[in-house]
Amino acid sequence: MIIYRYLCKEVMLVLFVVVCLLLLILLSNQVVHYLRSAAEGRLAYAYIIRLLALQIPQLLVFLIPLSLYLSLVWCYGRLQANHELMMISICGVSALQFFLMTLRIVLGVALFNVILVFWLQPIASFYRYQVLSNSIEFSPLKRAGSRHFQSILGDKWAFYVNEFSKDHRQMSGIFLARQQQGIGHAQFGADSAQDYPSNQTTSGIQWEVVTAKHGNISWIPKLNGYFLVLSDGQRYQEQGMTKTYRMMQYQYYGIQMPGPKMGQKGMIESSSLAWLWKHYKKRPYVAAVFYLRLSSSISIFLASMMALLFLKLIPSCSHFLRLVFAMLGYITYVSLQLIGKAWVQSSQWGMWHALGLVHGLVALLMIVLMIIQYCGFIRNRCKIFSLIPLGRR
Q1: Distances 391 to 28, 90, 97, 102, 271 between C-alpha atoms, Å
Q2: How far is residue 171's CA from residue 140's CA, in Å, rounded to a whole number?
Q3: Can you give the pTM of this predicted structure?
Q4: Residue 151: DSSP 8-state
Q5: Which of 60, 77, 169, 203 could form a disulfide with 182 if both were Cys (CB 3.0 to 4.6 A apart)?
Q6: Side-chain half-sphere CA neighbours of 12 within 13 A
C-alpha cells in the first residue's frame, strides 16, 4: 500500500538518524574511557575498535525503544502539522487502519529488538569480556622499555628489566619494588607466624622488593587471569618498624595483571534465554537480568502506543513542546522499569509480578486517558488542547 510505504519510509528514516546520533554520543564517551585505559597501560590500543564494535549491541538494546518512540512522535507530529494525516483520512484510511499500519512498523522493529536482546547481546557481551581479558595480556608491559626504571600496573610497581624479547612476552634481569601499607602476620601464612607474635601488628609504609632472572606473561586457567610469572629470584619484605628485611627465595612468583574478569554477573549477562529461564527462580540477579530483557521487548509496544496517545491529546502544539511532554512520559516509564528491576533483584517482588505491575500500570493509564479523550471529557473542560479525533475537522 502506498500510504503504508510512505509512513514506513518516514518513520524508519528518522529512527535510523536518531539511533545513529545517540549511538555516536554514547560511543564517544566509551572511546574516551578506553583511550584513558590505554594511556594508563591497562588496555592495548589494538583492541579499542573491537571493543567499541562489541559495545554496540548492548547500547542498541536501550536505544531502539527510545529511538522508535521519538521517531513516531516526531514523524506523526510533523505529518499532523502539515495536515497530511487529514489528507490520509480523506483518502479513506480510517483510524483503525492507521493504527494497524503503525503496528506493522512497530512489529518489525520489535522483532529485530527481540533478536538483539536474546541472541546478539549475550554473544557480544561474552566476546567483549574475552577481548578485555586478552587485551591486558601484556599491555602494561608493551610500552615498557629495557634498562631504565618505569612504573607499571597502575603505578603500583617500580619496574626494571635488563632485556625484552621481540614480542615483549619474555624478559630477563627483572627488578620490581613497591610501597604498601603495613600488614599483619596473617597475610604471610603459617610459615611466617614465627616472625610476628600473635599480639603484634605492623603499621606504616613498608617496602617490598622482588628480583628474578627470567619472567614471562602467562595465562593461569585456575585463577582466570594473566600473570607476570617470575622465576629463579628473591623477594624482600620489610618487617614493620624494625627496618629489617625478610628474604625469601622462590622458584616461581606471580603478579596478577590488571583487567576485568568474567565474574558471576558477567556470566549471567552473557547467558542465553534457555539458561535464564531455567535459573531465574533460584537467583535474584538472574531474575533481574531476565526482567530487563523482557521489559525491553514489551516497552517497544507500550512506548509506541504512548506516542500515538500524545499525538491525540496534544495535536496542535509545536514539535519542541510535544517532544518535551513525550520525553517526560518516557522518562517516567523507564524509571518505573528500573524500580521494578530493583524490586526483583532485592527479592521483594517476583519477576512476573513486577512485569505485570509496571507495564500493566502504564497500559491501564493509557487506556483511561484514551477513554476520557474519546468521551469528550477533556474537550469540554480544557480549552488548551484541541482534542479533535483523527480524520475529523
Answers
A1: 44, 7, 12, 16, 48
A2: 14
A3: 0.69
A4: E
A5: 203
A6: 13
Residue 30: CB atoms within 10 A of its CB come to: 15
Say if residues 105 and 7 touch (Cβ distance below 8 Å). Answer: yes
Element (H, E) at 362: helix 351-374
* Residue 137 burial (CB count, 10 A): 19
H-helix or E-strand spanning residue 255: strand 245-256
C-alpha grid cell, residue 224: 582466570
Instruction: Give tens-digit pLDDT for 336-366.
Output: 999 999 999 998 888 999 999 999 998 898 8
Could you give the angle at which helices 351-374 and 319-345 cross, rounded to 10 degrees? 150
Identify the burial level of 93 via C-beta atoms within 10 angstroms of its C-beta, where 0-12 means exposed, 13-18 middle and 19 or more buried.
Answer: buried
Long-range contacts of 148-154 (CB under 8 A, 24+ apart): 152/41, 153/41, 153/255, 153/257, 153/258, 154/40, 154/41, 154/42, 154/258
Per-residue CA distances from 66 to 63, 269, 272, 290, 385 (Å) = 5, 22, 24, 20, 25
pLDDT at 139: 56
User: Which comes out higher in pLDDT, residue 154 or 209?
Assistant: 209
pLDDT of 202:
44
pLDDT band with cut points at 50, 70 and 90 for residue 86: confident
How high is the pLDDT of residue 180? 73
